[in-house]
What does this fold into?
Amino acid sequence: MAEYVILSKLTSDGRKTLKSNPQRLQEVNKEIEAMGAKVIHQYALLGKYDFLNILEAPDEKTVAKVLVELGSRGTLSTATMQAIPIEDFLAALR
It folds into this structure.
């Protein structure tokens, strides 16, 4: 499975939701799993972005589906990158 780094920033609606229901973060992680991906690491950030999530997914289509679904709710915006394990990267250079 491939890994994807997702930086997300809450909208004002997202901040309101999180404040009134902090457990929503874990609920969303379960929804992501139901769509075929899995959150393997999750961090709250201080700065330009609010969260850093590392997802594992079978392909980019699955990640696109997850991001469109989450983005359509109007509670966050995202920046996504595919992550390559360093061992795989070095092997590709040989």
